[in-house]
Amino acid sequence: MISSDREQFETVIVGGGQAGLATGYHLAKGGRSFVILDANPRVGDSWRNRWDSLSLLTPARYSGLPGWPFPAAGGSYPGKDDVADYLEAYARRFELPIRSSVRVELMSRELGRYVLETSAGRFESDSVVVASGAYGRVDVPSFASDLSPDIRQLESTQYRDPSQVGKGGVLVVGAGNSGAEIAHDLARVGETWLAGDETGQLPFRHGGVVDRLLTPPFWFFINHVLTTRNPFGRKARMTAIKGHPLEQVRANDLAEARVQRVPRVEGVRDGLPLLADGRTIDVATVIWCTGFRPDFDWIDLPAFDDHGEPLHERGVVDGEPGLYFVGRPFLFALTSSLIGGVGRDARYIVEQILRRETAKQGELA
């Protein structure tokens, strides 16, 4: 339900996760009038509500937001609740103006200003930063609805722990990091299959000697070399958005846990998941870890391509002056959607906002 109340700001940030907080930090430093709208009840819920064994894929020293390093041992890999608590404490530390439990229902443009109709009223602004997360909806294939109603289906964002699946075998669809970690978790309590193409894996384990030696140059490489500034980075971008190599849970971990690897799921036959090799698997639960697709249906503006991705240059939408995106996968570099990489993109976007406001003031002088 949309309220009739109205508030005005220079900038509205949609999303109170890591991208929204980093953007808010830089706007606050610039003394701007802004508000952060977050659909979650608490800052950090986007991490807090994931599966229990989830942890960062980057060490703490590379996982801090601007102005405050992550408060943990530099070489450690904090768990998801530690990340959630850090984000919540970050918002308090810098007194960021967050409105929680506010869902944006529609955003449009009227008389040169952006108008956001929300569950808490109407917000108007000169600029909008969409920071509503790197991931929108789980990209569940259309044939999922053809599975037998006796098969329980969960999305990766709904999974918490093995107690959710009950008795019977489990098929995890999607063999990236999320799928591998969830399958490994489930294998402790029952028969588990992992479906999908091999994604490869990093050549070293987290926390080991090789990790400590290679992570600094590797971070420099993915943060400063793999960017959209050069052809090499742009080519890597096309590969990166299709999947990342396994990191914490690797191929031998899956084998030791007796997770059974099978080909991709390509359809349904007789109510059962149909694999690429023609077999079906009789399971009680299917968990979809099939990646994400954009969720920008609430934006009523011509700012997207045919696949629903924003039309932008480093987060700046040329066709809609004052509209920006932060936190998207490979927005500028491979690290753009990571906690430790989003700060640079946020700073750049705030620079563009301030430059635009200065130019407008010059025109009025």
- Please tally the β strands and state the result: 16
CATH fold type of the largest domain: FAD/NAD(P)-binding domain
Radius of gyration: 22 Å
**Domain unit count:** 2
Approximately how much beta-strand content do the residues carry? 15-25%
Terminus-to-terminus distance: 41 Å
Oligomer: single chain
Helix content: 25-40%
Top-tier CATH class of the largest domain: Alpha Beta
CATH superfamily of the largest domain: FAD/NAD(P)-binding domain
Uncertain regions spanning at least 5 consecutive residues: none
> Largest sheet, if any?
7 strands, mixed
Q: So what's the overall shape?
A: globular
- The secondary-structure class comes to alpha/beta
State mean pLDDT (0 to 100 scale): 91
Description:
It is a single chain. The longest helix has 26 residues, at 339-364. This protein is α/β, with parallel strands linked by helices and 365 residues long. A hairpin with a 2-residue loop joins β4 and β5. 27% of the residues lie in helices and 20% in strands. The model has no long low-confidence stretch (mean pLDDT 91). α1 packs across α8 (339-364). The strands form four sheets. Strands 1, 2, 3, 4, 5, 6 and 16 form a seven-stranded mixed beta sheet that branches. Strands 8-14-9-10-11 form a five-stranded parallel beta sheet, with helices on one face. Strands 7-15 form a two-stranded antiparallel ribbon. The chain folds into two domains: 6-136 and 294-364, FAD/NAD(P)-binding domain (3-Layer(bba) Sandwich), CATH 3.50.50; 138-202 and 245-288, FAD/NAD(P)-binding domain. The two termini are 41 Å apart.
